[in-house]
Amino acid sequence: MRLLALAVRALKETYRDPLALGFLLGFPLMFMLIFGAIFSGDELPSFAVGVVDQDNTMVSQAFAEQALPMVPVLKITTYDDTDTALKDLKFGELNAFIVIPPGFGQQVSSNWQGAKADIVLNMTYDESDVMISEQLITIINEVTRAFARVEVPVTVNALPIHVENKIDYIDFIGPGIITFGLLILIPTSARTIVRDKEKGFLSRLLTTPTHPVDFILGYSLSNVAITIAQIIIFIFGAWAMGMDIIGNLGLAFLIFFLTGLCSVGIGMVIASLSRSENQAEPLAWLFSMPLAMLSGCWFSVEMMPSYIRNIAFAFPYAHTIEAARGVLIRGVGLEAVGADFLFLVGWAVVIFAIGIILFRRSMRS
Amino acid sequence: MTSPNDDFAIQTLSLSRKFGDLTAVDGIDLGIKKGELFALLGPNGAGKTTTINMLCCLLKPTSGTARIMGYDVLRQPYRVKEIIGVSPQETVISERLNSRENLELIGRTHGIEAAELKTRSQELLKTMGLEARAKDQVRKFSGGMKRRLNIMMALVHNPRVVFLDEPTLGLDPQARRAIWEYIIRLKKEKTILLTTHYMDEADFLADRIGIMDEGKIAALGTVRELKNSLLEKQTMVIQAQDLNPQAVAKIRAKYAEVEATGDTMVISDKQLSFQEIVDLLHDSGVAIRSAYFKEPTLEDVFLQITGKELRE
User: Fold this and answer.
1) Chain A: closest CA distance from residue B92 (Å)
2) Chain-chain contact of A208 with B78 (C-beta, under 8 angstroms)
3) Is A12 on the interface with B (CB under 8 A)?
């Protein structure tokens, strides 16, 4: 079959090119490794502790903002409410958080004046981390005693919670980096097509009974094969680096696959609009790198201003990351990511249609 | 404008192509017989490649049309594409495939069965001397080898009509010779249209030559016919000792163009008498070492017809 012959040829041109292969697979995996290493908190000798000041007195503020940060092993972050602190604990960004209950300041003040008062702190931590909790209780206890100048131990109410499948950094970043890998398909697929156009390969094949549609399907088929290989390798890579896979792997695969199709389609559009590799390459990168950043491949989109988020969510990749995170690390099903899923299907269909029209037009002389 | 004729393998009918204001091909009428090797000779930019591109359905004519084995390039492009083989001017091969895979790719686009394709590519690799390197990726090939593969890819599906656009462009003499010998073997079996801007290539290979200049066929004929058209003027070259001024003056009095430099004298006129020239020189005490009539070259023909030299 003609288109199969073309697809196999395009595939060979890619997988026999170490540079292209390294780019498609090595680049994202390298990112995964680097990000994983930078942000894995395991080796840090300190404890990330959140503080929620419900007392809001001069004394409690002095405790939270001056006393606690003086302890070298503590990395203190202050929170306005317990919900946010709890979320960060679940995402593994905190080892524990302390709630300073109302009345804390008054108790400490009376202690300073010589009266014996009960000083109470509430500490929430992940019970799965036994070592941390014991050390932390001791540390907090000592700091507080020193601060309040009391001889007897203060009461630290330990409130262990069980964080089920604690989300660590690799879980969070995994889907983003996989999506980044699929974004790289834009320049690589555009490059294959434009190179053939520029070097006269397309023209040569147009002197054979090959129809334009054979090319389009041939390239697409080859890129689909590359996409599938990419997804499998990336998911496996992320898993090997410690990403938890809780949800339906098939659904996650489908989400990534649709994203890959979108990239191939965008690549086809860019290839049709460019005359040479020198034109297509920067165009593709100019498009895909900012998009990777905006879509949240490396950073959370939560922090971005809303107009930027709106731009990001006009393209498939932010939807992919959100849906894939939901499925992979929170274990949600199609009902929860349905809107994102439909968006991806629509995008893939439309961009492919545009790609085919533009590609056919660019082949007419 | 001539009428369609099925005796021709390739026939152009007032074939024209414009690119904006530039007329690249200007209404050419050409008939190439079945089994003929026809060379389009002309400088770069004469319109040779544009002509080929229209004949193999890559480029639509602005006006006029062409027929390949009776099929119209405008109305039946896919019938045409089935029976032609094209070797483009630039080497167009798939760099990371090996030579066999490249051949088989073209074969498969022509719908040739796997078994037959295997035999044919094997044969081709053998005749072109690439058999030993059949499994190497072609990006490692030398220029000559790539060029040979480029031609083989036009032949793997056994086409009836073959277009070779500058088949030996940029090759060293040895590699050119190898390709020429292969093209000679293809003659008779296939109809071949070859473009070149090398005189010796057209001279060596072609049954008939069309000299193309500024989009038009300026002259057409066999190598012999084209050269004979210049025979109205004869040229004699003489090597002699003691070529004294008196002797030169005597010759000048008799013939139109006389050039003497050192020991060499070149004489041109409509009619030259070998005996008379030799006698005249002899009487003036000149000792002749050699004297001969010079054959016109295609270069001379080209110069005469177009008024310019072929740029290499």
Assistant:
1) 6
2) no
3) yes
CA distance B97 to chain A (A): 7
Residues A48 and A30 in one domain: no
Give the predicted TM-score (pTM) of the model: 0.72
Residue A129's domain is classified under what CATH number?
A: 3.40.1710.10
Could you identify the residue written with the tokens 């030559």? B209
Same domain for A179 and A290? yes
What pLDDT, on a 0 to 100 scale, did the predictor assign at position B231?
A: 65
- Give the 3-state secondary structure of chain B: CCCCCCCEEEEEEEEEEEECCEEEEEEEEEEEECCCEEEEECCCCCCHHHHHHHHCCCCCCCEEEEEECCEECCCCHHHHHHHEEEECCCCCCCCCCEHHHHHHHHHHHCCCCHHHHHHHHHHHHHHCCCHHHCCCEHHHCCHHHHHHHHHHCCCCCCCCEEEEECCCCCCCHHHHHHHHHHHHHHECCEEEEEEECCHHHHHHHCCEEEEEECCEEEEEECHHHHHHCCCCCEEEEEEEECCCHHHHHHHHHHCCEEEEECCEEEEEECCCCHHHHHHHHHHCCCEEEEEEECCCCHHHHHHHHHCCCCCC
pLDDT digits (tens, 9 = 90+) for A103-138: 888 888 888 877 777 788 888 887 766 667 777 888
Query: Among all residues of chain B, which has the CA nearest to that of A215?
Result: B109
State the nearest Cα–Cα gap between B239 and chain A, in angstroms.
52
Give the other-Cβ count within 10 Å of B300's Cβ.
17
Together in a domain, A63 and A197: no
On chain A, the residues whose CB falls within 8 A of the CB of B109 are 2, 5-6, 205, 208-210, 214
Q: Do A200 and B90 touch (CB under 8 A)?
A: yes
Pairwise CB contact (< 8 Å): B96 & A17: yes
In total, how many domains does chain A have? 2
Whether residues A209 and B137 touch (CB distance < 8 A) is answered with: no
Q: Give the 3-state secondary structure of residue A5.
A: helix
ipTM: 0.80
CB contact under 8 A, B90 and A365: no
Query: Do A197 and A331 fall into the same domain?
Result: yes
Encode pLDDT of A133-191 as tens digits.
Answer: 777 888 888 888 888 777 666 677 777 766 555 566 677 788 888 999 999 999 999 99
Q: Which domain holds residue A75?
A: 41-161
A82's enclosing H/E stretch is helix A82-90
**Domains of chain B (ranges plus CATH)?**
8-228 (3.40.50.300), 234-295 (3.30.70.2470)
Q: Does A13 sit within 8 Å of B95, measured CB to CB?
A: yes
Which chain A residue has the Cα nearest residue B73?
A207
Three-state DSSP state, A158: strand
CA A83 to chain centre: 22
